[in-house]
Specification:
The chain has 303 residues and is mainly α. The chain has one domain: Ribonucleotide Reductase, subunit A (Orthogonal Bundle). The chain is built from eleven helices and no strands. It has helices spanning 5-18, 54-68, 70-81, 85-111, 117-130, 140-165, 168-198, 200-212, 224-233, 239-254, 265-302. Helix 6 (140-165) crosses helix 8, helix 8 packs parallel to helix 11 (265-302) and helix 10 packs antiparallel against helix 11. The radius of gyration is 20 Å and the shape is globular. The model has no long low-confidence stretch (mean pLDDT 94). Fe cation 2 binds at residues 98, 151, 181, 184. Belongs to the fatty acid desaturase type 2 family. Homodimer. GO terms for molecular function: metal ion binding; stearoyl-[ACP] desaturase activity. It holds the Pfam family FA_desaturase_2.
Length: 303
């Protein structure tokens, strides 16, 4: 980490010069809002008030509850990266930017009555009370590898959720949020690229461990598996996207399969990674085939 501090300083300066200031309140259609039941004696929420389909609604709930657990992620990253110097400055900047995402998505969902606000709040409480514990290992290299992939996965999920919503306002909002996630991914990806140059074998092992055990940070959300199936069937985030749009581009950027500086466990880890990617690609193709068969059967019944 001492050797990488100059890289962090450089990437932090690049990020600050690239990131654009934006304001969550400007992306919310406040004119659609009205009082809810409770102390203000407004109108209770009901499903027909939502203009979203089930797939977009479930995706936005997962995206928001994931963003809600920011205190846990801050703790995990601060524990790994530390709170001193450029490392600490980055951790705090990242946290401040990420906090906007939960603010804007919740405001949009509440104002547009897209989801049940009582159920959403109860789900938030349960999810945050459960806390967050990283499943990818607690070393610096494991942490940096994980966020390189996770930030890109979140960007893909946010962008596709916006498109699936059918609401231009929602799509604009999620595109703005995804732009933040992309800049965060670039920071972590460049940081790990430098780590590969300094410690190629150890970094390769961390990359492989993370890819093989990868889980989205919201995996502890109540009903996550069911929601994930709905989201995958809608093509918002599925195995094919995870393989083609998240893992492969980052690994290609790092040049992991072209490196000539690996030995011993580094070589072994790269072989494991190649084998895992092959299995994931096959599983993605199988899922796509079955999904198309289900869609064809459904279309035939409706026709």
């Amino acid at each position: 980490m001492l050797e990488l501090e100059q890289v962090v300083e450089k990437e932090l300066d690049r990020h600050l010069s690239t990131a654009k200031e934006w304001f969550p309140h400007q992306y919310v259609p406040w004119g659609q809002g009205r009082d809810f039941d409770g102390p203000l004696d407004g109108e209770a929420w009901s499903l027909e008030q939502s203009q979203l389909g089930e797939e977009a609604r479930e995706a936005l709930i997962v995206n928001l509850l994931t963003e809600d657990n920011l205190p846990g992620y801050h703790n995990a990253i601060a524990t790994v990266f530390g709170r001193e110097g450029a490392w600490g400055t980055w951790v705090n900047r990242w946290t401040a930017e990420e906090n906007r995402h939960g603010i804007v998505i919740r405001d949009y969902l509440t104002v547009t009555r897209a989801v049940d606000p009582i159920a959403l709040e109860r789900a938030r409480m349960r999810h945050m009370e459960a806390g967050y514990e990283a499943t990818h290992g607690d070393s610096f290299l494991h942490g940096a590898a994980y966020v390189s992939f996770q930030e890109l996965a979140t960007r893909v999920s946010h962008r596709n959720t916006g498109r699936a919503s059918g609401d231009p306002i929602c799509e604009q909002m999620m595109t703005r949020v995804a732009a933040d996630e992309n800049l965060h991914m670039i920071f972590y990806r460049n940081l790990l690229a430098a780590a590969l140059e300094i410690a190629p074998n150890e970094t390769m092992r961390a990359i492989t461990d993370v890819v093989k055990a990868f889980q989205m940070p919201g995996h502890g959300i109540d009903g996550f598996m069911r929601k994930s199936v709905v989201i995958a069937n809608a093509g918002i985030y599925d195995l094919r996207l995870h393989h083609d749009d998240v893992l492969v581009p980052v690994l290609r950027k790092w040049g992991v399969f072209d490196r000539a500086d690996l030995s011993d466990d580094g070589d072994k880890a790269r072989d494991e990674l190649a084998e895992f990617l092959g299995g994931l690609d096959a599983a993605a193709t199988k899922f796509e085939t079955r999904r198309e068969e289900r869609r064809a059967r459904r279309a035939a019944r409706q026709g």
